[in-house]
Specification:
The protein is 41% helix and 17% strand. The protein is built from 12 helices and 10 strands. The chain has 2 domains: 14-106, Spore Coat Polysaccharide Biosynthesis Protein SpsA, Chain A, CATH 3.90.550.10; 107-325, no CATH class.
Length: 328
C-alpha cells in the first residue's frame, strides 16, 4: 500500500499544518469528488478526518475504501446520527493541525486553496482565520454567485478594525467552505456551539475574526452547493430559528464576548441574517443596542436578495445577488 507523501515545503520553511474535517450524512456519491479535491492539493493536509454521522447509504463503505488507499484519511463513525454540529466538534477534538478547515461532503475546494491560505497565514500568524471567495450554486434555481466579491482585491491581513469598516460598507464576508481557522483560536472561542445549529459557523467565524483579525484571498477557491438536502436549507421553522437567534444574541451579550461584541455591533454584520434577526432584536430591549444604520442596511440588502432569488425573473435575481454579494 502506497502512503501519501508528507506535505511539501514552500521556500525555506515548512508551512503550518492543516487538518480537514468533513461531517458526512448520506453523501456517498459526493465523497470521492470532495476528498480527491483535498488529495490533489499542492500542499496536503496532515489528515482528513471524516465523521460519518450514522449514514444509511454506502458512505461508510466508500470512506473505508478511500481510507485504505490514502492513509491520510481517518474515518470516525458515529454509532447513531448526532447531527452536523456535534460531528464537527468531534472532528475538531481529533484534529492536530495548526489550522483546521471544515468542509461539507457535497462541496469541492479548488486547487491552490491550502497552499495559498497557509502561505498567507504563515506571514500573519496573529490572524484567527483565512478566507477566500467562493462560488455558491443553488440547485433548485440554477443560480450561481460569488460570495465575498466585495472583499478587497488584494491578498492580505485585515485587522479587526478593518473588518468593522468593511462591514459598515456591506463588504465583509467570511466564506465557510474554504476558511482555515487557527485551531487554538477556534477552541478558545468555544468551538461550534450546538445550540446555534445553522448559525454556529457564522458565530464562530466572526467571533474568531473580530478577536484576532483575518487573512483574505481574493480568488474563488471553493464551490458551495445548495441542494435540497443541504443543512443550510433545514432552518425552516420560524419559531425554532427565532430561538436559535435569541441564543446567539445572549451569547454575544455574555462577558466572554465582551471584546468582540462592539465590533460585531458596529460592523452591522448581524444584518446579513435578515429580517428574522431584526424581528428578534427589536422584540427585546436587551438586544436593541445592536440596531444601527449598518445593520438596517444589511437587512435591506438581504431582503432584496431573498425576494429577487425567489420571486423574480432570473436576470433580476442575478442582479440582486450581484448587489448583495458583490461590491454593492
Amino acid at each position: 500500500m502506497t502512503r501519501d507523501p508528507a506535505p511539501p515545503a514552500v521556500g525555506d520553511a515548512t508551512l503550518p499544518s492543516v487538518s480537514v474535517v468533513i461531517p458526512n450524512y448520506n453523501h456517498a456519491r459526493y465523497l470521492p469528488r470532495s476528498l480527491n479535491a483535498f488529495l490533489r492539493q499542492s500542499v496536503r493536509p496532515v489528515e482528513i478526518v471524516v465523521v460519518n454521522d450514522g449514514s444509511t447509504d454506502q458512505s461508510l463503505e466508500v470512506l473505508q475504501e478511500l481510507a485504505r488507499q490514502h492513509p491520510v484519511i481517518e474515518v470516525l463513525d458515529n454509532e447513531r446520527n448526532l447531527g452536523v454540529v456535534p460531528s464537527m466538534n468531534r472532528g475538531l477534538a481529533r484534529a492536530r493541525g495548526d489550522y483546521v478547515l471544515f468542509a461539507a461532503a457535497d462541496d469541492e475546494v479548488r486547487s491552490g486553496l491550502l497552499e495559498r491560505s497557509l502561505t498567507l497565514l504563515r506571514a500573519h500568524p496573529q490572524a484567527g482565520l483565512c478566507s477566500s471567495r467562493s462560488e455558491w450554486r443553488c440547485e433548485a434555481s440554477g443560480l450561481a454567485w460569488t460570495f465575498g466579491a466585495g472583499m478587497p482585491g488584494e491578498a492580505g491581513y485585515l485587522t479587526p478594525e478593518a473588518m468593522v469598516a468593511l462591514g459598515r460598507r456591506g463588504r465583509l464576508a467570511i466564506s465557510g467552505p474554504n476558511t482555515l481557522f487557527r485551531r487554538t483560536a477556534l477552541v478558545e472561542a468555544g468551538g461550534w456551539v450546538p445550540e446555534l445549529r445553522w448559525y454556529c459557523d457564522f458565530f464562530g467565524a466572526y467571533v474568531v475574526g473580530f478577536r484576532h483579525g483575518m487573512c483574505h484571498l481574493p480568488e474563488v477557491l471553493a464551490e458551495f452547493n445548495l441542494s435540497a438536502g443541504s443543512y443550510y436549507h433545514t432552518a425552516r421553522d420560524a419559531g425554532e430559528r427565532r430561538a436559535v437567534l435569541v441564543w446567539m444574541l445572549d451569547l454575544l451579550l455574555a462577558e466572554s464576548c465582551g471584546d468582540v461584541r462592539p465590533r460585531i455591533r458596529d460592523s452591522g454584520i448581524l444584518g446579513t441574517l435578515g429580517t428574522p434577526l431584526l424581528r428578534v432584536v427589536l422584540g427585546r430591549p436587551a438586544y436593541r443596542g445592536f440596531v444601527n444604520v449598518p445593520l438596517l442596511r444589511q437587512v435591506a440588502r438581504r431582503g432584496a436578495e431573498v425576494l429577487g432569488r425567489r420571486w423574480f425573473p432570473a436576470w433580476f435575481a442575478r442582479w440582486c445577488l450581484r448587489v448583495f454579494y458583490g461590491r454593492g
